[in-house]
Amino acid sequence: MISTRDRLKLFFEKLPLEAKKSLGQNFLVSDHVVEKILDAAKSFSPVELIEIGPGPGALTDHLLSWNLPLKLIELDHHLAQHWREMGCEVIEADALQIDWSPLMKNEKLVLVSNLPYQISSSLVIDRSLDKDGLRAMVLMFQKEVAQRIMAKKSSDAYGLLSVIAQNFWEIQTVCDAGPRDFSPAPRVASRVLAFKKKDSLIKDRKKFLKFAKAAFAQRRKQLKSNLLSDTEWQNKSPTLLPQWLESRKLPLTVRGEELSPDDMKDLYFHFQLE
Ligand code: SAM
């Protein structure tokens, strides 16, 4: 079988296009990384698939061979056109701007993507806010973003992204990828993560996001000051926050980053926000 690198060469011989930096076009050329992504996606037993950014198709050709319904979201007009001509269902748009709800009818839907790096954090937050829909996601990130997603409390990388992702997904590292696994080679290292949807008691996910944002508003500030300076929670904070901290044997001076994703959820419920 033809290698991912040779496949890419042939693709661009037929369709001569320059890789666009503005669209994060670093194309996969590693058979090993492609295989790892596909194996991870398969482990979720998908019944339907979505791929963001098929590009020249390092993953797409394999996904098509699974004979499952597959939707492609591609912002680059020429690449979108290519996949339409191949008979695929293509949404030519920015994955951050489209309405995902009509796409999320099937609960065994799996999202796969070698994501353009500039949309990756927002994409994870957005998809974490969907209660129904995706069963799982297998996504490539800049390594530093993957570390933020999986970070533990009190570490430098820990923050809003960690709290949101870890509340709504079980997350595992699939593999690392170096600059030479892509063409053109990016300057940064990359990492693939697999996300499995978790059951969560949080019903109003947007409200939880707002609460967590307020808690992390100013990283160096104490949780107390962050919540007190937010108009939405300042009335409840003077009584409810000390109560909760005492029940957890935590000092009043605690900072948002010292609360685990689970603590943040408990505090949110203690504020009776649902
Ligand atoms: N899947 C291919 C691969 O692995 O070689 C290409 C991955 S490349 C890192 C990212 C792809 O996402 C490109 O095809 C790019 O045109 C597309 N893209 C960039 N920004 C996008 C956006 N906001 N929404 C949808 N697709 C986007």
Order of helices and strands: HEHEHEHEEHEHHEEEHHHH
CATH-assigned fold name of the largest domain: Rossmann fold
CATH architecture of the largest domain: 3-Layer(aba) Sandwich
| Structural class category | alpha/beta
Q: Give the terminus-to-terminus CA distance.
A: 54 Å
Shape: elongated
**Any low-confidence stretches, pLDDT <50, length ≥5?**
none
Q: Which superfamily, in CATH terms, is the homologous superfamily of the largest domain?
A: Vaccinia Virus protein VP39
Number of β-strand runs: 9
Number of domains: 2
Overview of this structure, please?
This protein folds into 2 domains: 4-197, Rossmann fold, CATH 3.40.50.150; 205-270, rRNA adenine dimethylase, C-terminal domain (Helicase, Ruva Protein, domain 3). It has 274 residues and is an alpha/beta fold. 37% of the residues lie in helices and 17% in strands. Strands 4-3-2-5-6-9-7 form a 7-stranded mixed β-sheet. A two-stranded antiparallel sheet has the order 1-8. The chain has helices at 4-14, 31-42, 60-64, 77-85, 120-128, 143-150, 160-168, 205-215, 223-228, 237-247, 261-270, and strands spanning 27-28, 48-52, 70-73, 89-91, 109-114, 136-142, 169-177, 182-183, 190-197. The mean pLDDT is 95. β3 (70-73), α4 and β4 (89-91) form a beta-alpha-beta unit. The longest helix is centred in the first third of the chain and has 12 residues, at 31-42. The protein binds S-adenosylmethionine. S-adenosylmethionine (SAM) is lined by residues 23-28, 52-55, 58-59, 73-76, 79, 94-96, 114, 116, 119.
